[in-house]
Design goal:
Layout: E1 16-18, H1 20-26, E2 29-34, H2 44-57, E3 66-70, H3 74-85, E4 89-95, H4 100-108, E5 112-116, H5 127-136, E6 141-143, H6 151-167, E7 174-177, H7 183-195, E8 200-206, H8 211-217, H9 238-241, E9 245-251, H10 253-267, H11 273-289, E10 294-299, H12 313-318, H13 328-336, E11 342-347
Parallel strand pairs: 2-10, 3-4, 3-6, 4-5, 7-8, 7-10, 8-9
Antiparallel strand pairs: 1-2, 9-11
This protein binds pyridoxal-5'-phosphate (PLP).
């Protein structure tokens, strides 16, 4: 069957798979929505497509123009791919400490790359401000603005959420997601709550992100750092505002090592680092709530994109992480007693 006339038509309609090992271990079914199946290899293809299609519909984009975006990489890959489908050019502005796997993919898709030093958001040389300034100074450029442009969350409200709802036959107890821009958790959780208020939405937040503390105490404060890329926010952005969140859990990078090795060994699933955090969040929810749940989360991108960090022993040692996974029963026992690492919240945003 021919399913599209251009590459961007292949975005979405991804498969859902059970993680057998962790489902057996926890007594709850844990499902993964396989977003690595998107043609650009990540969940961010969905945002890229919606951002560009909505901009065309509003008359902001015309063929021949250049899309400009500040990105940790995956949005840049998605936008490069969708830009080609629509006769556009793409310039990605990226901090220079991200995985080289992603820079290579942007170039392979014909995107131009500008790398900048990683600096705090308040510095005008941050990749976000650099991209905005570049686009604002040129009439043939359009700034995608994935943080504040709510076409991003709309992609997940219109497509990701409904696809999951249908694949799960309307039976979901718990939905777990990380947040980078909040587009995924914003759009999908809004859709789920409209279907069934009882669906328990969990945010999984890494060290180095301020969202957990924001939901707990109203202030963006972060501790430590994380190898996950494009995950966590230190400010309130419009896409995140759409999220409806019931629980948040803060988990360390060491657990991503343990869980990624466990599902690789037992299930043949090679998780990217944000996906490993999603799975850690799902196991935490299962451990806290007890057996019998149907839990859904995402494999956000290809594990290959984390080869130089999550799967690289010398990188892990340099970050003072052990390449040796913790015994899984020990991790599960710890997750039953997360204490202040898990909070109840009634964040309803907009
Ligand atoms: C691999 C991966 N997972 C998850 C996310 C976060 O998704 P969202 O921006 O929709 O919150 C990102 C964002 O860059 C990502 O690259």
């Amino acid at each position: 069957m021919i399913t599209g006339q251009r590459m961007s038509d292949l975005i979405g309609q991804t498969d859902m798979v059970l993680i057998p090992s962790l489902s057996r271990l926890t007594g709850s079914e844990i499902f993964l929505k396989c977003e690595f199946q998107n043609p650009g290899g990540s969940i961010k293809d969905r945002a890229a497509k919606q951002l560009i299609e909505d901009a065309f519909a509003r008359g902001e984009l015309e063929p021949g123009m250049t899309v400009v975006e500040g990105t940790a990489g995956n949005t840049g890959i998605g936008l490069s791919l969708v830009a080609k489908s629509y006769g556009l050019k793409m310039l990605a502005v990226m901090p220079n400490d991200q995985a080289p796997e992603k820079e290579r993919m942007i170039a392979l898709h014909g995107g131009e790359l500008m790398t900048v030093d990683p600096v705090p958001f308040k510095n005008e040389n941050h990749f976000y401000h650099t991209a905005r300034r570049y686009a604002e100074q040129r009439s043939d450029c359009w700034w995608a603005n994935q943080f504040e442009n709510t076409s991003n969350a709309r992609a997940h409200y219109l497509h990701t959420g409904p696809e999951i709802w249908q694949q799960m036959g309307g039976k979901i107890d718990t939905f777990v997601s990380v947040a980078g821009t909040g587009g995924t958790i914003g759009g999908a959780s809004k859709y789920f709550k409209e279907q069934d208020q009882a669906i328990d939405v969990w945010l999984a937040d890494p060290d180095g992100s301020g969202i957990f503390e924001f939901l707990k105490a109203g202030e963006y404060v972060s501790h430590g750092s994380s190898m996950t890329e494009g995950i966590g926010i230190m400010r309130l952005v419009d896409n995140f505002k759409q999220a409806k969140i019931d629980h948040a859990v803060n988990l360390p990078d060491q657990d991503l090592v343990t869980l990624s090795r466990y599902v690789r060994e037992h299930d043949g699933i090679v998780l990217g680092s944000s996906s490993a955090l999603n799975v850690a969040g799902a196991v935490a929810a299962a451990a806290q709530k007890g057996p019998g749940q149907r839990i859904v989360t995402f494999a956000c991108d290809l594990g290959e994109r984390s080869a130089s960090k999550l799967y690289n022993e010398s990188y892990l040692k340099g970050k003072e992480l052990s390449p040796e996974p913790e015994p899984i029963d020990q991790l599960l026992e710890r997750y039953r007693q997360l204490g202040e690492k898990v909070i109840k919240t009634s964040w309803r945003g907009d």
